[in-house]
Each structure stands twice: as structure tokens, then as C-alpha cells.
Amino acid sequence: MEAVPRMPMIWLDLKEAGEFAFNAAVKKVDFEGCSTLRKYLGQLHFLQSRIPMGAGQDAAVPIFSGKAVTHEDIKYEQACVLYNLGALHSMLGAMDKRVSEEGMKVSCTHFQCAAGAFTYLRDHFPHSYSVDMSHQILSLNINLMLGQAQECLLEKSMLDNRKSFLVARISAQVVDYYKEACRALENSETASLLGKIQKDWKKLVQMKIYYFAAVAHLHMGKQAEEQQKFGERVIYFQSALDKLNEAIKLAKGQPETVQEALRFTMDVIGGKYNSAKKDNDFIYHEAVPALDTLQSVKGAPLVKALPVNPTDPTVTGPDIFAKLVPMAAHEASSLYSEEKAKLLRDVMAKIEAKNEVLDQFMDSMQLDPETVDNLDMYNHIPPVLMEKCAALSVRPDTVRNLVQSMQVLSGVFTDVEASLKEIRDLLEEDEAQERKLQELLGRVPPAPGSPPGLAEVSKECSKYLELHEKASFTNTELHRAMNLHLGNLRLLGGPLEQVRAALPTPTLSEDDKQVLQNLKRILAKVQEMRDQRMSLEQQLREMIQKDDITTSLVTTDRSEMKKLFEEQLRKYDQLKVYLEQNLAAQENVLKALTDANVKYAAVRKGLAEVEHKWNTTVQTLVASYEAYEDLMKKSQEGKDFYTDLEGKVAKLLERARAVCQSSQAQRQQLLER
To answer: Which part of the chain is the BRO1 domain (predicted)?
Structure first.
């Protein structure tokens, strides 16, 4: 897999701001452009702490990015610079073909730097400046960049032939990052913000999710192979093949580089699966476990958003505004910002700990509120089956044509068999008459001039008998296959009510329905708890973001700073109480869900069995439809074969009759001497 063609990467366009003094340096898509942007960002940070250039302040000037958005706020300029820094790093990461080890490392670093720029922008600036700086879009960009950085790391790991299990975990983490990005892309609000590009990104990301899931299971299969778990190897390779096929379906319209990568990977996975299945079927005979019985692959996040520090002198250079104003107010503001950051870190640590427990719990339960009962699917004939029914409705003679074709084949088959039997009987009778003659005349050798061609007829008859016997087995199998599919084809060609009636449906008692309703209610509580938690977290972040006490700090004595901080931080107490209540409620909600899930176990088992039967029935009916053309083709081939054989056997029968008559005549002459 180390030689697989590289997948394309997503990058973001730069914000345009017209012409300015160092415009040319910034527009260079290289490290110099990144360095210039970082220096400019740092100097803006130094400037805004001394001169009132914020929104509504005395020295505020219009700042614009292109023609669409203008704000009289220096923070907007900083936000645009940060955005362009992230966009430029994304371009640099995407430009490299990543065919060398160094190229993979450089691209990986660029994508991590891009994630760092977007993270700093999301966490330290207002989200109301423009749509591409909203919290949703920036979070999407972060997950995209981290996913692409992890993808570069995966490529490097495969190049280095790292252990299969590690490569599988790295690939699984790529999937996790892209799933987070896909969830954002599927959000209606995000879609409206992004516009047309949302569809292109979504198609590529969805395809990559299945593709890298396939890569993860490929390497889990390789690990199973190393551990000589041959049954597990088969199911992992089969799962990898299934996921790759899904990726191929989603890759329509993608560039040729994507198609090349998919074809290359299909050759690898397809070969692995066929070889593993064959070895297990004929050599190892290990039971192939169900995929859901095996431990899921946990992602290994080995990349991170590389932090941006606008005050790092090694990046920004010396502070060119150092002599303008005293730094006391700026230093105090920085201290207060650190207090807010500490408060946010403490709260987020608690939230993340609870979220991790909740995620692990829900993963172990494998409960999806949307499909927990799946009852709606039984009310309709699935589209794939409707398609087959519709196709047969315009071909009403399908079954009759198949039966007639097989009847014709059977007729020709019987005629050939009868002719071959008659030839064999003639030859056996001739041989018996010849023995009887020799017994009468004594051990007299056959008279010279006995009818020629008897041996040739016998030899040719044996050849045709052998052909007939081989074809007879195929003919029997063809009839068996026809009988297997005939009933299903009649069903598909009949009324839709009969098709629907043939599909299994679950039968639930009132108690079962009550169990389901209770489970759904608690699952809704879980989602409500999640949504409230996210909302409170967002409120906290926005409140911290907007909390600027610079004006108060200017008029506050240095000795009173600590007291002022304490007073200002009390504004967060109520929000913290709500969050604590939300986090504390989780234990009770999960306990109730555990109890409900225990009662649901029997219902779940029954529903799973019915769903399995339903899927099997659908697959069987679809297979019968798809087998029709093959049966007709093989039936025609059989008719052609036996028609040709019938002609040859008929000629041979005439020869056999003539030769046997001649032989009988000669024997009669010998008896009359």
C-alpha cells in the first residue's frame, strides 16, 4: 500500500484585501508568505493593546477583506490575517505530491499549522465578522486540516512499514477526523454558509471516510494474519472490500488521481481477500466471526493543531510599538485573559471527561435513536426490489420463456440420450452375435473383409457418450438452478401485495412496544442532555470571548487588580452551576438507559432476527432476478451444444445401423457355407 497514488487534499482560498505595501510578499505561496503573515499578526497584536482601534473606539479605521465585508475593528484585521495564515498553510500542504518522505512530513506540518491558526481564530476572536469565521466553519476547517495531517502521517507510516495494528489505528483516526468534518458538512446551517463548495467537500470527505476505513480493516486483517487468526483475517479483508466498494460508489466525478488510488487499493484488498478466503476454505477451516463481535479499531490521534503565539518575539520580531504607551494595562489584561482561559480549561476538562464516558457508554450500547426499532422499513418494499418488480412487469413472459427454453433443452437432451443408447445397443448386439458365431464355428478368426468402420463407430460413440455425461451434469445443475429461482421470479412478476407479504415482518406485543417507547424516551433524554451541554459550552465560550475589561483596568489601581478579577469572574458562576447540574445528571440518565436496555435485549434480539431474515429474503429475490439472464444464456448454450451433438449422433446412428447390417450379412454368409 505504500505505493498507492495519493488522494487530493482540500485547501482554502485566501481573503483578498486589495493592494498594500507588502502585498507581493504575502501572495507568495511559500514559507516567506507564512513568515510575513506571522510577523504582521504579532505587530497588530502589539498595536491594538496601545491604540484604541477596536470597534467603536476613537482610532478605529475601516478594515475590509475584499468587497463583501468591512469592519472598523483592528481585531477583524487580525482575524483575517489568521484566516489567511491557515489558508496559506492549507495550500502549501495540498500543493506537494507527497511522493517522498520529506514531502509527507512537510505537508503534515503545514496542515497542523493550518489547524493551529484556525483554532486560535475560533477560540480568541468573535465569530460574527463573516460567515467563514463562524464557529461551525472554523471547527470544520480544523477537523479537515487535522484529518489531512493524519492522512499524511498514515502515508508515511505505510512507507515505513510500521506495524499493522498501528497503521490501522492511524487510519481509523483519519476516519474519525473526517467523520467530524462530515457531520459539520451535513449540518444545514454549515451548508448554507459554505454554498456550492459544500457539496464538493462533502463528496470527497464521504468517499475518504469509507476509503480509510477500508485501509484500517485491511491492516487489521494483516495483523490477524500475523497472529495466525485466519477466520478474523477473512472477515477483516471482506469488510475492507465492502467499505472500498462504498468508496468507489461515492467517487463518481472525482479526479483521475482518486480513481487510480481506488483501483490500486482494490487490486491489493481484492487479492488479499481472495487469497485469505481460499486458504481458509481449503486449508485452515477456521470459523469466520461476525465483524461486530470483534473489538473495534480505536483511532490513534498522532497530530495536533500547532499553536499560534502572536507575542513570540522569535516569530514577530521586536515590538515596534514598545515606546508608545506603558505596558501595565496590557499586562493586566493578559493576566485576566489567562484567568478566563484557566476557568475555561477547568470547565472543559470536566466536560470532556463526562463526554468521553458518555461516548464510550453509547458506543458499547450500539443504540441509534433513529433506527432503534427499524419498524418503518417493513412498511415498504425496498427500492432495489421495486426496481426488479418494475423490470419484470414490462417483461411478462419472463418465466414462460425460461420454462420453454429449458423444456426445449430437455427434449434435445432426451433425443441425444435415446440415439446414443440405440447405438450402444446395436454395438452390443453385434458383439453378441459375433461371439455366438465364433462359438458355432470354433475359434475361427474373423473372416477377412468383415465390415469396416465398426471400431470407428464404437470409438466415436464412446467419445459422444463422454461428452453427453459431462454435459448431463451441467444440465442437471442448470435445471436445479432454474427450479431454485423460478418461484422467486413468479413472485417478483406478480402483484406487489404478494411481494410485500413474502417479506418477513416483526410481531410486537404491547409490552414490547412499551419497552421500545421507554427506550426511545431515555435516548431522547440523552440527546437533550448532549444538546444542552453543547449550548452551555458555546455560551461560556462566547461570554469569555466578549469579556473585555481593558477600560476598567486602565482606571484600576494595580493593588486592586486581584479583587477586580474576582468580581469580574463571578459573572460566570451561574453558567457554571448549569453545567455542573448537566454533568451530574449524566449518571442517573445512563443508569436509566442501562435498565431500559436490559429490558430491550429480548426485543432487540427478535428485531435483529427478523431484520436478518428480511435482508436475506430481499437478497435472495434480487439474486433470482439477476440469475435470469444467466440461466437463459446457459440454456441457449445448452440447446446449441445438444443441437450440434444431436446432428452428429444422428449421423453416427445411421453409420452404426449400416455397419451392423453389413456385419450381420457377413455372418449369415459364413453360416450358409
So the answer is: 1-358
